[in-house]
Amino acid sequence: MTGRLGSRFAGLRLSAGEPFTVVYGPGVDDTFIGADHRERNLDAVLWHLLRAQSCAYVAYSSQRRPLYFLDPESEARSRPSGRVPAGAPSRPPAQPAGSAGAGYMRHPQLRGPLGRVVVRPPARGPGPAPAGARSVSSAADGTGSPTEPAPTRALSDPFTVMTLAGYLADPPHRTAVVFTEAESTLRHTDATRPLDTFFSDWARHGDYDHPVVLVFARPTFDACVSYVESLHGYPGLAARLRRQATPSVRVGYPDEAELHRLVQRMRLRDGLRIRDWRELDGVVRAMAAQPLTVKNWRSNLLSLDGTPFSGRELTERGWLPRAGRDTRPAAEQLDDLVGLEPVKGHLKRLRRRVAAQALLRERGLGTDAEAASPHLLFAGPPGTGKTTVARLVGEMYRELGVLSRGHLVETRLDDLVAGYVGQTTSRAHAVLDQAVDGVLFLDEVHGLGSENGSFERDVLKVLLARLENDRDRLVVIAAGYPDKVDEFLASDDGLRRRFGERIAFPDYPPDVLHRILLRYLAAHGLRWDATLAGQLLHVVTELHATRRPDFGNAGTMRNLSEKIFTEWAVRVGEDIGQPLTVADLPEDHRALLPRPAPDDGTLLSELDAMVGLAPVREVLGDLAKRIRLRQVRGRGLPPPPNLLFVGPPGTGKTTVARAVGAMFRKLGVVRKGHVVETTRADLVAEYVGQTAPRVREAVHRALDGVLFIDEAYSLTAGSGVQGADFGKEAVDTLVREMEHWNDRLVVIAAGYPHEMEAFVRSNSGLASRFTVRVEFPPYSAAELVEVLRRSAAADGYVLTPQAAERAEQWFDARRRTDPTGFGSAREVRGLLAAMESRLAGRLLADPPATDHSTFTADDVPPP
Amino acid sequence: MSGKKRILVDETEWYRAQRAAQNLKQVRRDVPRLLDEVRRRTEADQARTRAVLEERARRTEQALSGLAAHTRQLERDTGRRLREQSERLHRELRGTADRLERDTRTRLAEQRAALERELAAERDQRRRDIAGLTGRVDELAGNRDRAAAAARDWLADGATMAGLIADTLPHERHAPGRLDRLRLDLDTARRNMDAGHHEAALPLAQRAYLDLSELRVDIEHRELERRLAQGAATDALVLVETLITQNRVRPVTGPDGEPIEGAELDVDHWSEGELDELRAEVTERLSRAGDDATTVAELRELTVEAPQLEQRLGEIVDRAGMRLLASQLRVNLADSVAGTLSRIGAYELADGEYEDADERRAYHAVLEHANGNKIVVQVLPAPEGETGQVLRVLSYDHDTASERELRDRAEAVRHALADDGHPTGALESEPGVPDPGADDLGRFRKPEAAPLHRRPADGAS
Prior knowledge:
The structure holds two protein chains of two kinds.
Chain A: E1 21-24, E2 31-33, E3 39-41, H1 42-52, E4 57-61, E5 67-69, H2 72-77, E6 136-138, H3 157-168, E7 175-179, H4 182-188, H5 192-205, E8 212-215, H6 221-231, H7 235-243, E9 249-250, H8 256-269, H9 277-288, H10 294-302, H11 311-316, H12 330-336, H13 341-362, E10 376-379, H14 386-400, E11 408-412, H15 423-435, E12 438-443, H16 453-469, E13 474-480, H17 482-490, H18 493-498, E14 502-504, H19 510-523, H20 530-545, H21 554-572, H22 587-590, H23 605-608, H24 614-632, E15 642-646, H25 653-667, E16 675-678, H26 680-683, H27 691-702, E17 705-709, H28 714-717, H29 726-740, E18 745-751, H30 753-761, H31 764-769, E19 770-775, H32 781-794, E20 798-799, H33 801-817, H34 826-845, E21 854-855
Parallel strand pairs in A: 1-8, 1-9, 4-7, 5-6, 7-8, 10-13, 10-14, 11-12, 12-13, 15-18, 15-19, 16-17, 17-18, 20-21
Antiparallel strand pairs in A: 2-3
Chain B: E1 4-10, H1 12-22, H2 31-64, H3 69-95, H4 104-139, H5 144-168, H6 171-174, H7 178-194, H8 198-246, E2 249-253, E3 259-266, H9 267-270, H10 274-290, H11 296-345, E4 347-354, E5 363-369, E6 374-380, E7 388-396, H12 403-419, E8 428-429
Antiparallel strand pairs in B: 1-7, 1-8, 2-3, 4-5, 5-6, 6-7
């Protein structure tokens, strides 16, 4: 029955069980071309829908026409004589004004001494109300073609409310009241209070079996409710709508089929000419993706005024977007996309599957099978074309008949979260409303955080409810970083069941990034030669190789192009004829250019200046040689090793770690070789759930360099504090990250020998990952004297041989008193400070002495 | 059950305009017909008067034949002139075509002046005639026999004249005692004669006869004057009576100035009996005018007062007509208010009736709404001397008890009435709740069908 009204109303039910049904959306002002090719306005459509739901009587009310009807039965019920109980003598209905002729009274049953004569014609006739007046009218129209009934009577607002309330009171059959322009009725009525009372009473005491329909010309349900709230006159209605579970009926834009009917109607009635029948389907498809109503399109197409209908013409006139001019099927457009091969593969499979399902269904097969979910997950970094692909998925679904419009509505998960309690739900509904019959692209999804958790849970509840309720009319594509997508799915069991395929969007390869960068530069109006293009390729390749998980892909290329443009502009000034040169590369990017390979001898030169460390140098030298060998043999580079630095504090571990970073970079094992120094305090948080992100953050910072964890054993040592073992979480996370980034990360864990043993044993993964152990032996007394000499020299002091000898004795004495704690270069700093004090004291006591920079034996304190 | 509103609908302007347009006070509609009618009705009177006069003329002629030759001539001449005068004056009284248009007092003055002129002329003529007779008496001086014969003649003529006056003329009405006194004079002359004093008897007898003759003329004149006054009074009153009859039922003019077919104004009904009262008074006055005992002064009074009666008639007709229109206006207003309520409130007219089924009373209309609410519209006649209609709106709202909502609805009604051209004053709230039975109009209807024009005995509204 309602199918012929067109897809916008197919299967629609005007909700029962709720006091009010809100009809809203961009299409409420539209006209509707049904499958029977008849054109109807919303009044007529609602009439059919309500009739189909066995409403015997339908009354309409608007500000302009306070009470009107589309069928005589409904009209008759509004009159007292229309509800006279059977058997009672029925009175003739009041004749319309003017039918008895001028000069006679309107009510034939009234008689005076002069019969029905009017002895005093009023100054202004009480005859037919002026055109456009509010009216009670009856347009009996069983077929529901939109007619404009002639106004006869103009109800006053208080009586309108009274009449409508009476209409719903104890009706003999199912009865509906439709407020066709709810906004203006609510805003401009003179009977705000009675109307509010009516709504409140209805919500409280009404029989919800009788629909009360409010039509708002608002895009979203939330806007309707907000509007009602903004009027302040209808607290009962506003509160009820806020609470209302079902957000009622959204009337959207016409779909492809309806626009086809429009074009055919206009071809037959208005002489619309089609330039090329072959492209018609594609053009109408593009039309359907536009947020335009049938009325909009009719007006547009009428203004063609003889010019034939074609995609080019519609685009020229700005009715179709430039991009939308691509009227080719989605698959062809997808093939044209650069890169994204795995994505294309996925979508081809998806298309085959959906198409096969449709074919089977046409033959009545496979109808019992649960349809695979149309919802998709796009996992990948930003800037990899997910939005573009989502748009094409929408078009593909439309071509396959899964969606009627297939348009794309983009939003971020966080954008659905509102700042106030209760608004989140309505905001989410509002966005989902827009996406009905199309694709909701939900970007930057993530798991539930602790901060906005409850609001985000509201969003998920709405999302899940709508995925169920609008099962056949809504497709959601959730997108984000792979791990965030995982967290998102993990936040509710329902999500995992709803979403079907997961499509991974890898980072663009360097060549694609290079093309993108050049396109941006060209868009800036810049020129360059082949050499520079090659250099840029190298830079991009390096950027790609050293990218972090949040690498922006196309976005990064755009930022780089803007930086290059700025550098170029600063350099050339007004001489804009100059092409780009290497000099225009930003400083940090220029470092990515290829450099000459380092000489072997310089690999560990930084360690040369250091005292002792012979075993360290030996181990690292061996490691360098092994790597060299592999490089020379043309084998792939091994993953950079992770190192354990074992030794007492103050034995130069941090310094050596920096040297290792530089060495690995020179060897090409890592790209950058920088060192990120961390301790337990940096990695372990105080609250649940914060530790892992801290570890990950540190790892990401250290990518292509060295993550140096000093006193690494303390990560596990602090366990058991208040029962929370966040140190373990840190270690577990660290192990995972080491595995994930094993080719781009060097982790150096440093600490006392004994504690480090315990640390490595604490997690089986650690032992296998720290492949190189570097022992930092304690300094000998002689080495410490050398350190002391160098430290003193650094400050401009000189040690006499006696002083050196005395210092060695001092160190020996220290070692004897504290064998385990001793051996640190830090002892040197303490001694040097003491020597400085004594030198100062000596010089003060002996003013003639002039040598202020020579330590003598006397300056060394006794052990 | 709630709401009882009173709205004063001012109709002063309408009344003024209608009054001018209807011209109800103008009771003389068709003057030629009116004159014919009056003439037809006074013709009998005139015939009777003529017969009386002819009878008297016959008897006078008979009596005069007994007179001596010379006096007989004198009296015949006098009688002829009297008849001529009477006929002329009566003719003037009735014959003037425009007499109805002219002022009664003016006409009376003219009538009196004409009469005076006739009388003066008559006196002159008689003085000349009598001078001829008395001259011949002088010739008889010294001749006793001839004087005795002449004295006998005068005595005989005097007795004849005295008999004529006594028999045919209303001397006691117009000249009481004078005839007796002149008869004494005749007796005195006769005793002188019998005593042989012929010379003394002759002038006395002659004098007595001439006085009697004078008396006769005098009475004739006075009688003529009375008859003329009586005729005028009768005419005037008959005119009023005719007007009353003619205006008993009047056509009703519609707003377009054309008479409304089938509609008539029963003046006595709509004036609540005032017309019959007026008719009774006119009848009483007519009977007084027809009474010969009524004096000329009284007759003149009746004549002069007749136009006032006519004016009263005009006022009665006017009042009745306006009441009828006002009654129609009430039902019109009810119709209009019902239309307004139907238009703005989706009410529908259920019933309408005059109070006590009497069109001169208030009009009540009952309207029903589909939700069971009712409104009773009562259009009350204006209080005496005022030109407004009082519109009372009694609302029976079962769906709400909110005074504010009820007031809003009443305001909406008032606004709509004003928009529909009914000048309304401020909305008045009447204390109390409406009578629960006010929506039952069946109480106004008697078991038998109420005729359109009933005349209840009770007084004015």
